[in-house]
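Student: I would love a firmer grasp of how sequence relates to backbone shape in proteins. I am handing you a single protein, as its sequence and its fold in token form. I am told such tokens are a discrete way to write the fold. I hope you can help me see how the letters and the tokens relate. Take your time, and here it is.
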Amino acid sequence: MKSFLPALLLLFSISKITGQEKGDKVVYLDSIQVNLKRSLDSILKNTPSALNIMILKEKLKEIAPKKPKEEEQVGWKNKGKFSLLFNQSAFNFDWQGGGTSNVAGNAVLNYEFNYKKKSLTWDNKILADYGLTFLRGEDFARKTNDRIEFNSRLGQRIGQGFWNYSLFVNFRSQFAKGYRFSKDPDTEETIRTEETHFFSPAFIQIGPGLLWKKSDNLNINIAPVTTRIIFVDDQFTSTEGYVDGDYFGVDAGKSSRFEFGGSLAAYAKFKLLKNVTMENLLNLYSNYIEDPANIDLDYTLNINLVVNKYITGNFAFQAIYDDNATGGFQIREIIGLGLNYQF
């Protein structure tokens, strides 16, 4: 028991020194320094060094300044990412295995600007994706991807949990003309027929709902009351012999279609390895007015490999089902190595 007394005396002396201000008339620094020196000498002689070290470490933890608590985001916060992917294949004249030389490129912009104050959040995201491939022997390029999308979601937290009241707006369209390719039976030349262009089609969805948001990387928004409007150019619905609903569900001679239904949007981003992340985006929509069992689906999987600050590898897979557009699944897949810039 006696071996603990010097250690306790040392702790008492340290506490007194750290607890007094300069000029305090009650504490005499000289006598405290003498007592401290004696206590240190006694500890070194009468107690095990391991015990002294343990006690000193615990005391230093108590008197050490604590790290300031990270301030919660208040106001606007924005971030962006721009990627440029390349792909190239070449075959010489004597290559017997088949194949067509081509060069392809894909540019992707992902920009977010979010607002947060107390229990109120407002998340906004712009996605822009455009890709072209050039095949040897053809006078025109073919699109590999074309998308403009804007998402905005307002959330008000309910209590202290993960649930929020929400209101969302989604807009989707494309940049350039889209074509259907076919072969001329007489000349064997490639023929392209315009099928889509900017704002034809364009989809706008808006609706209130409930948002479960554990973090920015894991959330689900459920909107049982959602309005969707589809806009098209009436040049595609006014052709001779056009049948109602053949072009994204729009009737003959019309340029828009109104739908009322429910939607679900889910987002999940995980870290697979140290430099590899997997991002999942799922959007479901059911039209209550017409064929509610035919649920529109849009699923996107992105896997990103960070080589260094400027070079990344990307794999993208997208599956779309919309029976107003086509009777089957639309599948898109991209693999590439490219340049990356974050801002």
The radius of gyration is 33 Å. Confidence is low (pLDDT under 50) at residues 1-5, 14-21. The first strand starts at residue 75 and ends at 89. The helical segments are 4-19, 29-46, 49-63.
